[in-house]
Amino acid sequence: MKEYKTITEISGPLVFAEVDESIGYDEMVEIETADGDTLRGQVLESADDLVAIQVFEGTSGIDRNASVRFTGETLKMPVTEDLLGRVLDGSGNPIDGGPDIVPDERHDIVGEAINPVSREYPEEFIQTGVSAIDGMNTLVRGQKLPIFSASGLPHSELALQIARQATVPEEDEAGEESEFAVVFGAMGITQEEANEFMDDFERTGALERSVVFMNLADDPAVERTVTPRMALTTAEYLAFEKGYHVLTILTDMTNYCEALRQIGAAREEVPGRRGYPGYMYTDLAQLYERAGRIDGREGSVTQIPILTMPGEDDTHPIPDLTGYITEGQIVMDRDLDSKGMEPPVNVLPSLSRLMDDGIGEGLTREDHGDLKDQLFAAYAQGEDLRDLVNIVGREALSETDNKYLDFADRFESEFVDQGFRTNRDIDRTLDIGWELISLLPKTELNRIGEDLIEEYYVEDADVDDDAGSEEAPADD
Amino acid sequence: MSQATDVAAEDRGQIESVSGPVVTAVDLDARMNDVVYVGDEGLMGEVIEIEGNVTTVQVYEETSGVGPGEPVVNTGEPLTVDLGPGMLDSIYDGVQRPLDVLEEKMGSPFLDRGVDAPGIDMEQTWEFEPTVEEGDTVEPSDIVGEVPETQTIDHKVMVPPDYEGGEVAAVEAGEFTVEETVVELANGEEIQMHQEWPVREARPVEEKQTPTEPLISGQRILDGLFPLAKGGTAAIPGPFGSGKTVTQQSLAKFADADIVVYIGCGERGNEMTEVIEDFPELPDPQTGNPLMERTTLIANTSNMPVAARESCVYTGITIGEFYRDMGYDVALMADSTSRWAEAMREISSRLEEMPGEEGYPAYLAARLSQFYERAGYFENINGSEGSISVIGAVSPPGGDFSEPVTQNTLRIVKTFWALDADLAERRHFPAINWDDSYSLYRDQLDEWFEENVSAEWPDRRQWAVDILDEEGELQEIVQLVGEDALPDDQRLTLEVARYIREGWLQQNAFIEVDQYCPPEKTFKMLGAIKTFDDEAFEALEAGVPIDEITAIDAAPKLNRIATTPDDEVDEHVEELKEEIETQLRELY
């Protein structure tokens, strides 16, 4: 391996070096500083005599005499089933004090696109035990469904609740043992947040079936561009070669995008919207599209990326580009949070695009689709009326309108606000939905088939008990 | 795409630098838009800039690991597609490589690189039935025979447009592969089923005509309020989650075109899989044969190489033009043109070109208009008539329609279906906003609707538009003072508008009877609501209180006509009208 001491420029996370041989695009580089530290980087641009290298650990300590070695290969992730139960740093090195990882295979972290012909359309309902998701925005295996959140909202709790409770009822009933794994990729989160996740993983025993990648807030920002790729490479290996159903949680995508912007700026690229690189859509797609099922393979990769919307603005480039790639979104709402809702999910702007094929007779229940549509319409109507009530008062509204207002209030307090430790099965979720929708007269239910109204409509609706929900033991 | 082996390499150069999908090469003798093979693995690319000795290439495949010094080989030909029988019922990537063949060749569900395959099967034989005889004279583009391509479509074999034509010297019926000569001309020209055509060049036509026939979509809001003509252009812009893809897919399923070209340009993999799984199962509403038999799919998902995304719309429209030349009506859906524009932007920024608005290249508007201009109702050179209708989805960042791609698209297209996030949140689908949308074809299509559906079509449509407009104005007042503060006649108008919105404009793509609504049913449903409107206002004038009018049993049934099977609609609507009449007249 040839060594160069030809660094010509160091700028932010980038190092430029002169070379006299052909260096491949995306190739891995090792840089040894005068102190003997070895830093790792990747070729961003390769020209005849000059390469641009992005250094993962930051360029601090590098001077023009540092030696540069090109490894001749692109970045690879060592994969093995033994990764389950391990905690790694953002570049895939163990940080849990456990033994070295002996890889079965080494996979290129960039990953190749799944041929659309080879995909299998996702339609297996995952029961998360969260009504706002199961009932209104159902998750299915192989879907990518991000959580759009904002600083200070309990998105981590929701993600953990999903990781803890997710099951596939159909398989449970059939007694099939589905092998389930969690791959957790943290990018730039604080130590405290990281502890929160780790504690929960350890307490619930989930760690055994998890692979954790940790890039913390004080770890090098550039490393963040590698962490999700490492995590997804591991997820793909477990899913498509070892048959696991892998739930991949990536948090926080906003930090990832900031790192992209930082590199773009250092390279003096023409910026796109709000300074983010013009290729951010493609870059994010290369992450999010690594979810799905493959025809003839056992496992699946389901993705739940979490992002915090800067300024709670869903037109900001990060949530915007994400929404265009992912199959829906779960939106957290500050107003609901301040009302104390757990989880504070606003179902109206939330969406699951794969829902309609994953619900209904034989999958969840025959009434699911119609009921969901009606709940959406009724809640939207109630929301509208709230604005009006502020102006004219409740007395000025018709009786029906008042019923819509009651419905909206109770929908929030009884359907959405279930608590982070309550696990509701789908029947219970739908039953609560019926009890609430039955607050409205039958004539208002124009989205539901008449036969279903006949069967499920609750006369004298009044919801109080919470039977059928499973309360998890309280935090100790 | 033609294989490398077909063409002798004209010249070789070396890679000078690599930056993502953009590679520069030196010492390469190439013309603009020539296709080249890059690096040791032979990745396909296209020349996009030449400066002195340096040639810039956009590469259609992933470039990791490719380095300077590796060879670049020029094919000397522009990016072309293979045209011939076998394109229907196929699924391609952005440069017309059949994805199922790639899967087989790569032996993996993941897309490897450096694998090439022709766009149509060169080995398969087809039953050729000539329509010319020895001694006939044929001219360029003339049809010389037919091949049953699928149960639905007869593929017409044509004289390539760049031939001279002349007397037919030999012609034979029988089984042939696409590369075997089926007709020989006296001047030595040989005609095969297989043709090639450069994707960036429109196939020649005789004349573009004014479209006068609607492309029936089976969507009430589209056919009823904002119709598209056969040969027309439409844009569907909308923020994420507003239903662009569902609308595009409904059109692909139900539009009364002969041929559908569906381009998934930079969109989701699972969505394309849904199309791939559904279309072979779903029946074509015209013929009952599987939908795939009239469909060509182009799937370049968002994580597939960005340069191939740039070319996929051209690949699609060139295939469309070939069927148009045969005299077919082609409908082309591009989902989404924003991703195509972004691919242009990405390549442009890697070339360090001076950016225009929001970083898009200055030639964005020109490229968009060139593309949409390839749509139209045409008289072909061979005398037949065919059309290409183009429906482009647009994904404006943040749902803001003032951004460059939406604005430049609107300057060209004549139909605008504006999707609305607010309607989508209420699960009002299709979430097409009736205030913002428009169709400039409305007037020129009226004649067709009057003749084929009802003479009252234009009036009834106008009535619905008026009610919806009035509702829009009234809603502003209602927001301030509440509905009860309005006078009775205005409250009644709101009630009628509600039936138009909920019973007529809303359509459920997931209910079988409601997925496709024939224009007759569209018209009759509106008729039922109009009857309610007329009768209710008469009752109101006669002094019946508004609450009693709106409380009649028959009224909620207006929201359920959509789920009545097509063959029972006539009877059902007549009964309902009578019921409304009786119930309302009983009140005074």
TrEMBL record, chain A:
UniProt GO cellular component terms: plasma membrane
Main localization, broad class: membrane
Cell compartment(s), UniProt: Cell membrane
Keyword list, A-Z: ATP synthesis, Cell membrane, Hydrogen ion transport, Ion transport, Membrane, Transport
Recorded GO MF terms: ATP binding; proton-transporting ATP synthase activity, rotational mechanism
InterPro entries xrefs: ATP-synt_VA_C, ATPase_a/bsu_AS, ATPase_F1/V1/A1_a/bsu_N, ATPase_F1/V1/A1_a/bsu_N_sf, ATPase_F1/V1/A1_a/bsu_nucl-bd, P-loop_NTPase, V-ATPase_su_B/beta
A GO BP annotation: proton motive force-driven plasma membrane ATP synthesis
Stretches assigned to the ATP synthase A/B type C-terminal domain: 357-457
Pfam family, one: ATP-synt_VA_C
Topology relative to the membrane: Peripheral membrane protein
Residue stretches making up the ATPase F1/V1/A1 complex alpha/beta subunit N-terminal domain: 7-72
Role this protein plays: Component of the A-type ATP synthase that produces ATP from ADP in the presence of a proton gradient across the membrane. The B chain is a regulatory subunit.
HAMAP family attached to this UniProt entry: ATP_synth_B_arch
Subunit structure: Has multiple subunits with at least A(3), B(3), C, D, E, F, H, I and proteolipid K(x).
Family statement drawn from the similarity comment of this UniProt entry: Belongs to the ATPase alpha/beta chains family.
Protein name per UniProt: A-type ATP synthase subunit B
Gene giving rise to this polypeptide: atpB
UniProtKB/TrEMBL annotation, chain B:
GO terms of biological process kind: proton motive force-driven plasma membrane ATP synthesis
Gene3D superfamilies: 2.40.30.20, 2.40.50.100, Bovine Mitochondrial F1-atpase, Atp Synthase Beta Chain, Chain D, domain 3 (1.10.1140.10), P-loop containing nucleotide triphosphate hydrolases (3.40.50.300)
GO MF: ATP binding; proton-transporting ATP synthase activity, rotational mechanism; proton-transporting ATPase activity, rotational mechanism
Matching Pfam families: ATP-synt_ab, ATP-synt_ab_N, ATP-synt_ab_Xtn, ATP-synt_VA_C
InterPro entries: ATP-synt_VA_C, ATP-synth_a_Xtn, ATP_synth_asu-like_sf, ATP_synth_asu_arc, ATPase_a/bsu_AS, ATPase_F1/V1/A1_a/bsu_N, ATPase_F1/V1/A1_a/bsu_N_sf, ATPase_F1/V1/A1_a/bsu_nucl-bd
EC number: 7.1.2.2
Subcellular location as annotated: Cell membrane
Keyword Membrane: yes
Listed CDD domains: ATP-synt_V_A-type_alpha_C, V_A-ATPase_A
Domain annotation ATP synthase A/B type C-terminal: ranges: 446-549
Transferase in keyword set: no
Mode of membrane association: Peripheral membrane protein
Function according to Swiss-Prot or TrEMBL: Component of the A-type ATP synthase that produces ATP from ADP in the presence of a proton gradient across the membrane. The A chain is the catalytic subunit.
Complex formation: Has multiple subunits with at least A(3), B(3), C, D, E, F, H, I and proteolipid K(x).
Family: Belongs to the ATPase alpha/beta chains family.
Name used for this protein in its record: A-type ATP synthase subunit A
